């Protein structure tokens, strides 16, 4: 019986198709290019290879091609009667996820990994800041991912993929000293694992080591294909480190080369979040942002996310609209997400509208309204998904609103609280500008 890299049987008569599938899964799990061609070749060799259709579906979902992903998942489901129960469960979890059934997909993942704890692709659906838990609307999604991975850890030994997410889960839950050795080992086992490099960048951020973060990404990124999934986002991390070190020109150069919508190859949500939050930070720090820069980001937001309903996209769309001088449109997005929350159709709840409206109020210069909206949102903002590093733009906005409102005491208090709770370098830019 042919098996995958996790020692799980594969229903295919073609050893070559199985080999292509195994290689494709590793490329997908490490965020490297080439998986699409290998899945396609596996299916040329065995058109009835159900798991290869499912792998295609997951990859298409990652690449923001929902219709194609759903079609591939349907083909996998159609072949499910002739394969093993493990493969059927694997396919069903993916099919539910690509068809937008998030709660059902997560329930399926939980049931599946209880029986097959080493089935990486279904497990991967639950992980990361944009996964089923990250976008569940739960305030504790970081902790939930950590607990899930810890429950499965006895089954995994030293696998580079599992170590990446296990280590990152500890970094994101306030234990970088515990997570960093796992991440370093994951990168030792697979140096070109982009998710591992990404998690390590977060570890430098949370540990307060911006200099080492810049150096690490500068070494790692040049050999990474710029059309790969994480190239834009790793560049964003490097630009963020540069901002924290005061190198505004260097950060802007990197943004222009690798992050802005006209040059980035990443899926729309990744590019929107990175570009909008970077430009917004620049503005909050008192730097000038060109109108053309904001126009690009607003165009991406309105074309890719014209309707409310995906909280992480909604918040960054509001930043793009407000940053480009369209505060009224950002307020309309706030109204739209509030209507969804009122109708019970937004698991993340009313915090999404508070964050969107806070962006509109900041852009209008209504510092008091911005403060009044963002203060109660801080405790709930993890519900929108994303990482601590990504959501720090909200605290940056509140600190900037305090400063502009002349409330230096509260600006300093929030900056010091974040500095003491997490990374020491995060708020040097703010504390250096405030009275002693």
Description of the structure:
This protein is mainly alpha-helical and 436 residues long. 68% of the residues lie in helices and 0% in strands. Among the domains are: 15-125, Tetratricopeptide repeat domain (Serine Threonine Protein Phosphatase 5, Tetratricopeptide repeat, Alpha Horseshoe), CATH 1.25.40; 239-431, Serine Threonine Protein Phosphatase 5, Tetratricopeptide repeat, CATH 1.25.40. It has helices at 15-29, 35-45, 50-62, 66-78, 85-98, 102-115, 120-125, 141-152, 160-172, 176-189, 194-207, 210-220, 231-244, 248-259, 268-284, 291-304, 311-323, 327-342, 351-364, 367-377, 388-404, 408-421, 428-431. Helix 1 runs parallel beside helix 3 and helix 13 (231-244) runs parallel beside helix 15 (268-284). The chain is globular.
